[in-house]
Amino acid sequence: MPLYAGGRRSIARDRSAAQLEQLRLEDAGARQGLETRLRAATVELAAAWRRIGLRAEAQAHADEALALAETAWRQGSLEQVALLDARTLARQAGLAAVEARWQYLQALVHLQRGLGVVPGPLDAQDRERLVGHVGVLPLTGTQESAP
Question: What pLDDT, on a 0 to 100 scale, did the predictor assign at position 139?
């Protein structure tokens, strides 16, 4: 009977080794999935940050075009329809700038969740810094050009 017991031990050892290898593979898959999600969230955050600057620049140009259109309309060299179009474009550019901030905040929350950080309630000063001033990064509180 000792041969049978030894066979049982080797089968149990082989089964444990297979289970251990399976757990290693599952762990590697989970790590790779987490790394992929974190990289995607980081890329989205960087893209959203860039989008804020581009849309703010577009808003500034649209506001300048509106000011020029209003001046031309007051002088009688521009039709009212063109003035209304300039106002519409300026409002759309403003909405796009706000949307860019919103997309940045969404990307930031996705990255925080991927890192295991649960965003909590903010006091008034932090909320103003996060929402009101685009140039201030909410993670570090410093002025930077990109996240």
Answer: 42
Tell me the helices (H) and strands (E) count for the chain, helix number first. Answer: 3, 0
- pLDDT value of position 16: 92
Q: 95 vs 67, 99, 132, CA distance in Å?
A: 18, 6, 15
Helix (H, G, I), strand (E, B) or coil at 134: coil
Q: Using an 8 Å Cβ cutoff, are 108 and 45 in contact?
A: yes
Q: Which tokens sit at 26? A: 């599952």
Q: Which helix (H) or strand (E) holds 94?
A: helix 80-115
Distances (CA, A) of 89 to 92, 103, 120: 5, 21, 37
84: left (phi over 0), alpha (psi -120 to 50) or beta: alpha
What is the pTM for the complete model shown?
0.62
